[in-house]
Amino acid sequence: MIEIDGKTVDEVFREAVARWPDNTMLVAPETARAPIRQLTYLETALAVDAHSQALARAGYGRGMRVAVLLGATLEHYLVKLALNRLGLSCVPVNPDYRTAELAYLLEDSGAVLAICSDDFSAQMREGIAAAQTNPRMVAFDDILDRLPPAPFVPDGGGVTPQDEASLLYTSGTTGRPKGCILGHEYELMVGATYLDVPGHISLREGQERILNPLPAFHVNAGVLTFLATIQSGNAMIQPERFSAKTWWRDIQDTGATIFHYLGVVISVLLADTSTGPEVIGNLRAGLGAGVDPSLHGVFEERFGIPLVEAWGMTEMCRVLHIAEDPRMIDTRAMGRARNDLECRVVGGDGTELPRGTPGELLIRHSAETPRKGFFSGYLNKPDATAEVWRDGWFHTGDTVTMDASGMVFFVDRAKNIIRRSGENIAAAEVENVLFEDSRVVNVACIAVPDQMREEEVMACIVLGEGVAPDEATARAIFDRAFAQMAYFKPPGWIRFMTELPVTGTQKVVKHKIFGDDEDAFAGAFDFRALKKRGPRNS
What is the spatial distance between Cα 252 and Cα 269, in angstroms, rounded to a whole number? Predict the structure, then answer.
């Protein structure tokens, strides 16, 4: 394994190339458009050399940000490494963003350049046209010979471990996504933590092929898995997205030894009762989060490999994990504190709670260096950064319990965050879009259970006078929201209400919307089948 102290992402990558030039580094499974692709460490290095040299010739360098819209492809990782070599920050773009969402990212990040594939060029042009800023744009295939010149001279000096390597946008509870600043040191520490996971997921140098079906713009694939593979001479397998139809074929064709999952992935795989241990190929374990305890043992018994549960977030992805037996698979256990990560559970007043009592999970590196190994802050939001770091601890917002042994058990999601198929959806962001609809007088978005996707968005809406509370109105409201937001964000359920419970300051009290015995779905309109990638409904 490679020592990372005092190094940048590029320095570690160069050392990996020198140590394992012929090892496979990146793999893209077969698709309908292309056969399986593989790049060795040396082949990857040659491509990164060419792209970084082109960027440097055009004047791009340290202190600049570049929006990258390449989807979950090998090209995304080539570009990230080329940018990081020069001290540029990679700002991945969710391919499902609508125009307004993309424009916001471009404006907030101050990106000077946008790199996209042909598949997303029209989308990027629309985002740039709608933005108040004017980043240059280039297709990936044109980087080497048609790169537009940089708009200003970059910062001087060499790249340092504290420099920004990525800016990842994550949903928050106040509406618009927040840009999480991730430094080189942070990203390398995240990868190194993966290498330290013991037991079933202990990585073997140069022998693992890790299939991660999560998108490249997520910290799980784009940082945790990517930087861990580089530091250990292993291969990262990046499919375009999770597909139940091709999953087991991809596992076998790519020789995957470890796979990553979300709870919904396990649910879908178990739904195919025709499969069993004969399909696992070289797989020896899965690493993920959110598998329902009732399905955990079922999967392990059927396929004969363990699922290791872990917990992390964009702001701190040096994961908690429960990787050694007994793994308590019939619970929501997610790990214990480590030497480099302290945990405590507190009540609303910040006082530490007795063991076994539900409260908010707080974490830090140590009392002396609380923020070491964490994100550098929220871009343009110093107040939000200070708020999550109050009292010297990072406030995760997640409700957990801790037992006498220090084991942490997940209880509930962060306030006002809806977790749908691994995507964090800010209720406030969806509410803001719905409030702009002239038919809507008041609205509250809440999480409702979904057998396939873990949670779904339900919009509880009070309509304006004279607006019919029928399916046609609900569909019109849904279509308008769908046209403005990534496909997974609009409400899968819409229920019309005569009123919403509010406080004296007129804030909606969401936990009082439905009584204890009330069926939340009664009279609600179901639009879940319409929440698909592809053309907008309006």
Answer: 15
Closest residue by Cα to residue 410 from 520, 314, 331 = 331
CA distance 215 to 435: 30
For the four alpha carbons of 344, 350, 351 and 356, in that order, the dihedral sign comes to negative
Which is more confidently placed, 50 or 177?
50
Q: In what order do the strands lie in the sheet with 164-170?
A: 136-139, 113-116, 65-69, 89-92, 164-170, 178-183, 377-378
**Joined tokens for residue 404:** 């006498």
Pairing of strands 440-450, 454-463: antiparallel
38/235 Cα distance (integer angstroms): 9
Task: Report the amino acid identity of residue 107.
Answer: E
User: CA 125, 131, 137: angle at the middle one, nearest 5?
Assistant: 40
Degrees, nearest 5: CA angle 354-360-362 = 95
User: From edge to edge, which strands make up the β-sheet containing 359-364?
Assistant: 333-335, 408-412, 394-402, 359-364, 342-346
Q: What is the DSSP string of 432-469?
A: HHHHTSTTEEEEEEEEEEETTTEEEEEEEEEEPTT---
Instruction: Decide the pairing of beta strands 24-28 and 37-40.
Output: antiparallel
- Helices 427-435 and 471-482 cross at an angle (nearest 10°) of 110
Residue 442: name the closest of 517, 493, 526, 513 by CA: 513
- pLDDT, residue 176, reads 80
Alpha helices by DSSP H, 96-137: 99-109, 121-130
Q: Record the tokens describing residue 61, joined without a space.
A: 């360098």
For residue 232, how far is the Cα from the chain centroid? 23
Helix (H, G, I), strand (E, B) or coil at 82: helix
Q: For residue 119, count other CB atoms closer than 10 A to its CB.
A: 12
Tens digits of per-residue pLDDT, 199-256? 999 999 999 999 999 999 999 999 999 999 999 999 999 999 999 999 999 999 999 9
Q: H-type helices in 131-213, by residue range?
A: 184-195
Token representation of residue 128: 């740039």
The DSSP letter of residue 141 is: G
Report yes or no: 300 and 266 within 8 Å, Cβ to Cβ: no
Strands (E), 359-439: 359-364, 377-378, 394-402, 408-412, 417-420, 423-426
Q: Tokens 């919403």 label which residue?
A: 500
pLDDT tens by residue, 316-329: 999 999 988 999 99
pTM: 0.86
Average of per-residue pLDDT across 107-131: 97
